[in-house]
Design a protein that fits this description.
This protein has ten helices and 15 strands. It is an alpha+beta fold.
């Protein structure tokens, strides 16, 4: 499908983080204290915490800032001391909606969009569930129409935020009067495991909590500094179904991340990007989901990217960690701020995120500093 100017764009972006800040060096030291009886795990944890390129993260759980003896999420002699899945879900239910509300209000304000204009609400999360869900509660708290089309995307992993943007693009393409509000909330730190196993310690080293939101709709004269959306693309990489596993356990969700993920991405993504950009579209902006330092490094090498092209992803990983599906909008906002400050002209870009499967989501976009649309027709449906 195609549409002509004014185009479909991300009209407003909002982000939010919880009040509690985790300093990486402090977390590493307290975890080291908790691992005093596990010398091998202690040495490995110190190394991975130092190498993962995270300096600060945020959490909704103040107990994660307690000393090792009092932190229920750190390894102890008795696993029963750790919060149960039910307890973690109660925390999620209490904290998710206020954080998502804050991000959504910021996105609406940033885009100059009234709640009454929202026709669709897509809520995204893989770190908690409850009913009535976040979609119903946000509809009430934001003052959206009770007839708004609500679409929850649950348990799709880190790629779901970009999947929601691609879905919103397609919805607006089918209805030029539509405005889609996306709200992603991930409270990843609620699933830190009281374990000395390497898989659990690795996940504990770089995940953080955060919420992000955006409005996707037809661009108007008042909208400046927008990302106009183009075609999207999704693919399952071969031989990688077991490389990223996220299962519900007795003490939160158990995550397994294979060390082979960066290698697989570096091996298969160039060919997929080549298929996606077969018409000669050349991106200078790269919004890479910072699923880990190794993923950014692999893509930098595969596409010979500059330090500036990977800077936004590295900056978000450094300052916030990996916030799962919410992270990609943090990266796009980081890119947008730099473009606005530099008074940039039109620039083409590609955004990509990765999830269990291994799933890869991609979308093309063009940064437009003014509301004057690209005069060329822009494809907006899946490729």
């Amino acid at each position: 499908m195609e549409h002509t100017a004014p185009g479909i764009a991300i009209l407003g972006i909002g982000t939010a983080v919880p009040d509690y800040k985790m300093e990486q060096n402090d977390v590493s030291q307290r975890l080291s204290d908790a691992l005093k009886d596990y010398s091998d795990s202690r040495r490995w944890a110190k190394r991975i915490f130092k190498q993962c390129a995270v300096e600060t993260r945020y959490t909704c759980e103040p107990n994660l800032l307690e000393d090792a003896a009092n932190c229920r999420y750190f390894p102890h002699n008795y696993v029963s001391e750790a919060p149960s899945t039910a307890q973690r879900m109660q925390l999620y239910k209490r904290e998710a909606v206020p954080l998502g509300l804050k991000a959504a209000q910021a996105a609406l304000q940033d885009g100059g969009i009234a709640p009454s204009e929202i026709t669709h609400l897509i809520t995204v999360s893989c770190t908690g569930q409850f009913l009535p869900g976040m979609d119903a509660l946000l509809t009430r708290k934001l003052g959206l129409s009770p007839t708004v089309n609500r679409i929850p995307l649950q348990f799709l992993g880190c790629a779901a935020g970009l999947k929601a943007i691609c879905l919103a693009n397609q919805l607006v393409c089918g209805d030029s009067s539509a405005h889609v509000l996306i709200v992603s909330v991930e409270l990843c730190t609620l699933h830190i495991q009281p374990s000395s196993q390497r898989e659990a310690l690795y996940a504990a080293s770089f995940f953080g909590d955060g919420a992000s939101s955006c409005v996707v709709g037809p661009q108007r004269a008042a909208h400046r500094g927008c990302f106009q959306l183009g075609p999207d693309y999704t693919v399952l990489l071969p031989g990688s179904l077991e490389e990223m596993v996220w299962e519900i356990g007795a003490h939160g969700f158990d995550l397994y991340l294979s060390t082979a993920i960066p290698k697989l991405i570096g091996q298969f993504i160039p060919e997929e990007v080549s298929r996606f950009l077969k018409d000669g579209f050349k991106p200078s902006l790269w919004a890479i989901h910072p699923g880990g330092r190794g993923i950014i490094d692999a893509l930098k090498d595969a596409f010979a990217l500059t330090e500036e092209q990977t800077r936004p992803s590295r900056a978000i990983l450094r300052d916030y960690g990996n916030m799962s599906s919410a992270t990609i909008l943090f990266v796009l906002e980081e890119i947008r701020q730099a473009l606005r400050e530099g008074e940039a002209d039109d620039e083409n870009g590609i955004a990509m995120a990765f999830g269990p499967g291994l799933t890869v989501e991609m979308v093309r976009f063009t940064y437009l500093p003014s509301a004057i649309p690209n005069p060329l027709q822009v494809e907006t449906a899946g490729v």
